Amino acid sequence: MRVDVISIFPDYLSVLDLSLVGKARQRGLLDLRVHDLRDWTTDRHRTVDDTPFGGGAGMVMRPDVWGLAVDDVLDGDAAGTHLIVPTPSGEVFTQRHAESLASAEQLVFACGRYEGIDARVAEHYRAAGVAVHELSIGDYVLNGGEVASLVMIEAVARLIPGMVGNPDSLVEESHGAAGLLEYPVYTKPPSWAELEIPEVLLSGHHAKIERWRRDRALERTAARRPDMIAALDVAGLDKHDLALLAELGWVPGPDGDGRLVRA
Ligand code: JB8
Q1: What are the backbone angles phi and psi of residue 103, rounded to the nearest 5°?
Q2: Where, in this chain's numbering, is S-adenosyl-L-methionine bound (predicted)?
């Protein structure tokens, strides 16, 4: 996979030389190129921004400079290319986006600063057949798209086939098919700070351990992510799940749509 990142602060992306993403590059699974947007400016002051039409605070990034930069880094035809524009006004980036982007031929990350990038850039590349994704990494505001791009690149890079040593660790984790948060995990020593590990984990009773872990996952999800409980399909829950969820205040809804509601 080829990944291009365009930013006025390319040094912000230097952490991509480290760790998992660095390993993917060394192994030739990832061709990552970071670019300075100012390389595509044509004026003496290397200007990338201007005042907003219609008035208002701050500056907006010029579409002409962005157009030259994106045209230059686009590799081959539009099919297989995804242009990702981090923005607090975007759709929220999830593991589903990461999974979908992991099979792309090329990802181009356009990192905005100031009040963002002129809206015609996304419109233009969409019209040209590029899959354009305006994405937010959560409900908070950063100073620019660089850190959001780092987050998304790490989430995608670890899903590239051949990246993670043990593929089991990919299928069993949070935000996978189960739609539940992960259960709590423990390791040695068995007693620490006057805290003991749950006895069932020492029992060697595989079915009991599985049930205990699922109960803890359901409890955690109900407490921390009620939105994920509301999105569960009742058909995927067993009798024991439904009994525990009822104790936690979640019951099958009145309209029989296969969803849970608060009792
Ligand atoms: C200017 O919060 B964010 C984010 C904030 C930004 C820009 C891009 C993303 C551009 N401010 O993810």
Answers
A1: -105, 10
A2: 112, 137-142
